[in-house]
């Protein structure tokens, strides 16, 4: 029956609700300023590319670098307080600030690698740089997201940008095949993750990550049986956790969602491979850290979590991932595929941080933050050398690196530094990165808890895998220095390429020498 009073009251309520929403958005904008600047640069690069001639399109790289540098500098002047912005969709805290700067500064080497790569010669590059920055925006939002809808939108923004970048060279059959595989695998992973998020929403009645620990149920049953309410709630929680983790594992390229990585890494343009192996992977780990940090552990268990051993699951997946990656890399003769499997192995090492998220000593977030910094330096350095050699030889096969130590002595020496760092040999950053991860796990093992055996097994497996990885990394060094090449011509490398490689090598040594100071910075990482 028509009731004007009810309609007027409803309209007044909607007006008040909209006004509160509008004011909340306005208050959130100052905390979102660096992202707005990044969006402005994305749109500006697209517009400039329409107006500039083809020969000038490549030089939009410098505009893209400026688009990373300005937001990174502005985000460095944040206060230590935490804020929930856009009605709980995002959080601004030290955790999101760290990863924001990591993604923005880490994109600069990717842009320079793209600028140096001959794979993009004769192509318009404005779209490429704009899409790359859009992917970086997605990575930043993944590290800040605290709501299920924002998690999905951020993940898809990064994923769709990555799909386009992988297949950017349109007439490259391998790139087109890699992009198609990436789209198919990514779509399945996203669908599985969304279903898991919907289960969590049904269990908690909330789409906020912070409410994950409060999965409870109303029941008078005190016994555990296959048909009890407790059992059904725990099983649903476990299934939802596995589904969500599968979606995030796809970005981290960890088991069981690793199978896309080798083919996509090999088929994609080499700078895009570097982007996927470091920044896209780091975005997945940032999301996983924020998500898993909300789960209870130890004595702080809600009813449904008592039968969900998620820490043991992370330990098993870490061991299996690092072992699979290293064993698969042993037989590779293509450097991009070798680095792809190496990336899977390093993802396994990084997953060690998930086992010590609630540790009182070296926590998982600070150990992982430091490890990502070391991984960025050594991996970008290795890919820079691969691109410079690929520009001259047109190949990334291991046999073409024979005698490289004599033909290109400087970048060969730097490559050895990066290889030693990937193994974890002092005095390189890779050693300190693994040291802090190992230290955190060993401290937990010594605590005398019932989980000690699990932690010791994890450390032992990581040590064995480190020894295995030395074989295929040193195989590259052997080809460069101990095997004579058929062609004796020197390989000329651009000055900018040498500067980039030298900078990554210097950063690799710096993160070893100044490890304590850098780790003190990562200790301030706090999750809102």
What are the main properties of this structure?
528 residues, mainly alpha, two-stranded antiparallel ribbon, 20 helices, 2 strands, 1% strand, globular
Topology:
Layout: H1 4-28, H2 33-51, H3 54-57, H4 61-75, E1 83-85, E2 90-92, H5 94-116, H6 126-144, H7 148-166, H8 173-204, H9 229-252, H10 261-267, H11 270-293, H12 310-329, H13 335-350, H14 364-393, H15 404-407, H16 409-423, H17 429-445, H18 452-481, H19 495-513, H20 515-522
Order of helices and strands: HHHHEEHHHHHHHHHHHHHHHH
Shape: globular
Number of strands: 2
Structural class: mainly alpha
Strand order within the widest beta sheet: 1-2
Strand content: under 5%
Helix content: over 70%
> Compute the gyration radius: what is it?
24 Å
Distance from N terminus to C terminus (CA atoms, Å) equals 48 Å
Give the overall average pLDDT: 86
User: What oligomeric assembly is this protein in?
Assistant: single chain
Number of helices: 20
Largest sheet: 2 strands, antiparallel
Account of the 3D structure:
- With 528 residues, the chain is mainly alpha-helical.
- Helices cover 70% and strands 1% of the residues.
- It has a two-stranded antiparallel sheet with strand order 1-2.
- Strand 1 and strand 2 (90-92) form a beta hairpin.
- Helix 7 runs antiparallel to helix 8 (173-204).
- The radius of gyration is 24 Å and the shape is globular.
- The model is unreliable at 218-224 (pLDDT under 50).
């Amino acid at each position: 029956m028509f009731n004007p009073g009810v309609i007027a009251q409803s309209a007044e309520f909607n007006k008040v609700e909209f006004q509160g929403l509008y004011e909340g958005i306005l208050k959130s904008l100052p905390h979102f300023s660096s992202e707005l600047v990044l969006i402005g640069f994305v749109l500006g690069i697209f517009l400039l590319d329409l107006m500039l001639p083809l020969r000038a399109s490549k030089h939009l790289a410098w505009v893209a670098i400026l688009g990373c540098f300005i937001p990174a500098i502005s985000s460095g002047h944040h206060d230590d307080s935490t804020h929930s912005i856009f009605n709980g969709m995002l959080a601004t805290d030290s955790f999101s600030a760290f990863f924001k700067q990591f993604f923005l500064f880490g994109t600069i080497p990717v842009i320079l690698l793209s600028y140096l790569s001959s794979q993009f010669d004769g192509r318009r590059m404005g779209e490429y740089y704009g899409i790359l920055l859009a992917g970086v925006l997605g990575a930043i939002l993944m590290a800040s997201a605290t709501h299920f809808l924002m998690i999905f939108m951020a993940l898809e923004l990064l994923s769709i940008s990555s799909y386009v970048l992988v297949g950017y060279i349109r007439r490259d059959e391998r790139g087109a095949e890699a992009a198609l595989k990436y789209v198919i695998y990514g779509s399945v992973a996203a669908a599985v993750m969304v279903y898991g998020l919907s289960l969590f929403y049904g269990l908690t009645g909330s789409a906020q990550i912070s409410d994950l620990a409060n999965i409870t149920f109303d029941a008078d049953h005190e016994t555990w049986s296959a048909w009890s309410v407790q059992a059904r709630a725990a099983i649903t929680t476990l299934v939802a956790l596995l589904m969500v983790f599968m979606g995030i594992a796809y970005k981290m390229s960890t088991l069981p969602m690793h199978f896309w990585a080798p083919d996509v890494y090999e088929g994609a343009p080499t700078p895009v491979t570097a982007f996927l192996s470091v920044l896209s992977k780091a975005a997945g780990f940032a999301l996983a850290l924020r998500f898993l940090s909300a789960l209870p552990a130890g004595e702080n268990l809600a009813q449904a979590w008592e039968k969900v051993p998620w820490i043991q699951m992370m330990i098993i997946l870490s061991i299996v991932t690092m072992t699979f990656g290293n064993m698969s890399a042993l037989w590779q003769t293509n450097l991009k595929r070798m680095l792809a499997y190496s990336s899977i192995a390093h993802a396994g090492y990084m997953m060690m941080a998930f086992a010590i998220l609630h540790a009182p000593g070296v926590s998982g977030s600070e150990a992982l933050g430091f490890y990502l910094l070391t991984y960025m330096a050594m991996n970008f350095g290795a890919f820079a050398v691969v691109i410079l050699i690929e520009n001259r030889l047109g190949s990334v096969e291991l046999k073409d690196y024979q005698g490289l130590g004599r033909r290109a002595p400087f970048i060969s020496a730097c490559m050895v530094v990066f290889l030693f760092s990937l193994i974890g040999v002092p005095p390189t950053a890779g050693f300190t990165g693994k040291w802090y991860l190992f230290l955190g796990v060993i401290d937990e093992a010594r605590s005398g808890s019932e989980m000690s055996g699990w932690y010791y097994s994890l450390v032992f497996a990581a040590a064995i895998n480190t020894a295995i990885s030395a074989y295929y990394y040193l195989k590259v060094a052997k080809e460069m220095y101990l095997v004579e090449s058929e062609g004796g011509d020197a390989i000329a490398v651009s000055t900018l390429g040498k500067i980039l490689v030298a900078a990554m090598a210097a950063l690799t040594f710096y993160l070893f020498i100044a490890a304590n100071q850098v780790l003190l910075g990562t200790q301030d990482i706090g999750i809102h």
